[in-house]
Specification:
Blueprint lengths: L29 E5 L2 E5 L3 E6 L6 E7 L4 E4 L17 E10 L8 E10 L2 E9 L5 E10 L18 H7 L7 E6 L5 E8 L10 E7 L4 E3 L3 E6 L4 E8 L14 E4 L2 E5 L14 E2 L2 E8 L2 H12 L7 H4 L3 E3 L12 H14 L3 E4 L40 H10 L2 E6 L4 H4 L2 H15 L3 E4 L7 H17 L5 E5 L15 E4 L12 H11 L8 E5 L21 H6 L5 E4 L14 H16 L1 E6 L7 E7 L5 E8 L6 E5 L6 E10 L4 E5 L4 E5 L5 E9 L2
Parallel strand pairs: 20-21, 20-27, 21-22, 22-23, 23-24, 24-25, 25-26, 26-27
Antiparallel strand pairs: 1-2, 2-3, 3-4, 4-5, 6-7, 7-8, 8-9, 9-18, 9-19, 10-17, 11-12, 11-14, 13-16, 14-15, 15-19, 16-17, 28-29, 29-30, 30-35, 31-34, 32-33, 32-35
């Protein structure tokens, strides 16, 4: 039977922290120096370091749930930088309780500060209650003479493992984390992610290997499982996707037998400031035991600490009209008021005005003369266009309130000189919040080609969050350019995943389903905005393609988005009358979406292919109830047997919430498999299940 012991801690209440002595407080979290040892601990994980004057060396790592302890014998520090001495000086240690904010849960932070020659390092460890992982934020300042990343002379070298491994050795790149694990039987899984979704349509790549001699792996996540004990360790690199990281050394992890090194700081030595701390790429180290699902549960337990998911702020069924490709040609007061009428008939909760609401003309405009360069030469660029909105946005906002629809906006920060105008951008958003109460913004067109632009972009978001007391929600676009990806900037809102359009026939329902299915194993699905389109547009352009949108019901297209934050990527006023029948399905979904998204969501069944039985499971805290969303794609079988990986054996009642499913009871055995029935192809069913006595 699959063990679920790691699951329950996901939903524990966070108690009060504060004890920094030898004994943990009631939360079980503490950080303490004991002579030459530093101990970081909670009820799930313990990590002991040799103090080494601040340049920490891991001595033990314990999974307190399984009782497994790994003992390390290395004499080398966990962190190193090319050209810097190994001996640390000026070390300091402090512990502080961080109270809960609208964004972050209460937690303990232990700060270790020291110098390696002229380089100053500050490591801030974050410890959360009942979480089997410890995060580490890294800040740097000072000076370093030797380059931190040697750029390959020929991009072809990056395909050569031997050459790449040589170039990425610790003497040539920063090592941010290092674990020298005992034994030789380590199964390695490296998970690489791809954004720039305007170009990429496979967003996850898994590489599997056995630990051996020098090898380099790409990816934000690495799982290392000890095949002797079936216990494992994961490392999450809190950075953009590998292919867009700054100062990228050609890989993310070095592995030699049991030795794992996380490499790449996201900055060069030339990016250092003598006085100001600059944030490097951080990481999270966690433990898991048992079978496959427990590693995902352990990872998710940390990911759900990054941003408190508040349902009255973060849940949304958003409509954005850009998907119908009218660009900014229609956007005006009358159009928006009509869209609100259509939106309320459909059942949306948020309406977002995309490009065209503002006075300035963007580079994406359907009209000539638009640009993003030197935006702030026009101080009214981010004011409502007086010709389109002679009364400002007030009539739109007021009507939205009457209809129960929140008004949201699109925004493109000024990219000039490394986002140098970040503060002006921030004040523009803050003014919109103060004047109209608008708090949700799609952030598009972001450019972070260097460290300073990344620093300035973070300043922009932080300033708006502070000014709105954590009410701001950012839909962070990852469709193009060098942006934050799936594992950085997660504390600011959700991720606008992809642009897909019927106009160019790059919208296929099973492609969208496949992308969210693949991502949802490693990224919380409820943190992603997923689109559904007007299937009646451009049907002739698809010809007799069996996977064309027109061959699916509108309910089905919406169902693909249920495990995430649904995005109605169309003009509501452009829908035919029959489309509004889907309001019934949306209404049923709205009744359960809070419960659905409060669970841990994982993919089940086969990878979507247009011909699969596939879906998602959402398991709630008490492990006796949850949801299953099942899709029968275009195949000849009226039944599909799906394994539900986070369910304990027993008899369950499956009640249909939406779709074509019928109520049934099933006895779930140790193989955790359940048979679902759907009479028609391209149909779905959302079930709520509960343990039946």
């Amino acid at each position: 039977m699959r063990t679920l012991v790691l699951f329950l801690f996901l939903f524990s209440f966070l108690p009060t922290f504060g004890n920094i002595g030898d004994e943990p407080d009631k939360s079980g979290c503490f950080a303490v120096r004991r002579g030459e040892l530093l101990v970081l601990e909670n009820t799930r994980i313990s990590r002991t370091f040799l103090w080494n004057n601040g340049n920490l060396i891991t001595r033990e790592l314990t999974d307190k749930q399984t009782g497994k302890t790994w003992t390390f014998g290395t004499k080398e520090a966990d962190m190193s930088f090319p050209g810097q001495p190994e001996e640390a000086t000026n070390s300091e240690f402090s512990v502080v309780t961080i109270p809960e904010t609208p964004i972050k849960p209460e937690h303990l932070e232990a700060t270790v500060q020291y110098s390696l020659g002229t380089l100053q390092i500050k490591r801030v460890f974050r410890i959360y209650a009942d979480c089997p992982a410890v995060a580490c934020d890294i800040y740097l300042r000072g000076h370093a003479e030797k380059p931190w990343v040697q750029q390959a002379a020929n991009p072809g070298d990056l395909q050569n493992i031997e050459k790449l491994g040589e170039n990425a050795k610790p003497e040539f790149v920063p090592v941010m984390e290092k674990l020298e694990l005992p034994g030789k039987h380590w199964q390695i899984e490296a998970i690489e992610f791809f954004d720039v979704t305007d170009r990429c349509n496979t967003l996850v790549k898994k590489t599997e290997a056995m630990g051996y001699r020098d090898n380099i792996f790409r990816g934000n996540i690495l799982f290392a499982t000890d095949k002797v004990s079936d216990n494992g360790i994961f490392i999450l690199k809190e950075a953009p996707a590998s292919n867009v990281q700054l100062a990228y050394p050609g890989g993310d992890f070095l592995n030699t037998f049991g030795k794992i090194s996380l490499i790449g700081a996201g900055m060069q030595n030339t990016d250092l400031d003598q006085e100001k701390w600059e944030k490097a790429y951080g990481f999270v180290t966690g433990v898991y035991g048992g079978d496959e699902i427990n590693k995902i549960i352990a990872l998710r337990s940390y990911q759900q600490q990054i941003r408190l998911h508040k349902f009255d702020r973060d849940e949304m069924i958003m409509m954005n009209t850009w998907g119908d490709r009218a660009q900014d040609k229609k956007v005006n007061e009358a159009f928006c008021l009509a869209e609100l009428d259509a939106g309320t008939r459909l059942g949306i909760t948020h309406f977002q005005l995309d490009d065209g609401w503002q006075t300035g003309r963007s580079a994406n405009s359907a009209f000539a003369g638009g640009s993003f360069d030197n935006i702030w030469r026009n101080p009214n660029y981010w004011k409502p266009n007086p010709d389109k909105f002679p009364n400002g946005l007030t009539p739109i906002v007021e009507k939205g309130k009457k209809l129960g629809i929140e008004i949201c906006l699109w925004f493109n920060p000024s990219p000039d000189d490394g986002n140098i105008n970040w503060e002006k951008d921030a004040f523009a958003l803050i003014d919109l919040y103060k004047q109209y109460g608008i708090r949700t913004f799609k952030i598009d067109g972001v450019k972070m080609p260097d460290k300073q632009s990344e620093i300035n972009f973070r300043k922009l978001l932080d300033k708006v969050v502070e000014a709105t007391n954590g009410e701001a929600v950012f839909n962070l676009d990852v469709t193009a350019g060098r942006r934050g990806g799936y594992h950085s900037f997660n504390e600011y809102g959700n991720i606008f995943l992809e642009n897909r359009y019927t106009d160019w026939q790059n919208y296929y329902p099973y492609w969208t389903l496949r992308n969210i299915w693949m991502l949802s194993k490693y990224v919380p699905a409820q943190n992603l905005q997923i689109e559904f389109l007007n299937k009646w547009r451009n049907g002739d352009k698809y010809g007799d393609d069996p996977f064309a949108p027109k061959n699916y019901s509108f309910d089905y297209l919406f169902a693909i988005t249920m495990m995430a934050q649904p995005l109605a990527w169309f003009e509501g006023t452009g829908l035919p009358e029959e489309a509004f029948a889907t309001a019934e399905t949306i209404g049923k979904y709205k009744k359960v979406m809070t419960d659905f998204h409060s669970g841990i969501i994982v993919p089940v069944g086969e990878e979507p292919s247009g011909k699969s039985w596939t879906g998602f499971q959402s398991q709630k805290a008490d492990d006796k109830e949850g949801f299953v969303l099942v899709f029968r794609e275009k195949n000849n079988s009226g039944s599909g047997e799906l394994e539900l990986p986070i369910i304990v054996p027993g008899t369950y009642r499956f009640e249909p919430v939406a779709g074509k499913g019928k109520e049934f009871k099933a006895k779930v055995g140790t193989n955790q498999r359940v048979v679902f029935l759907l009479d028609k192809t391209n149909s779905f069913a959302l079930y709520k299940y509960s343990h039946s006595h």
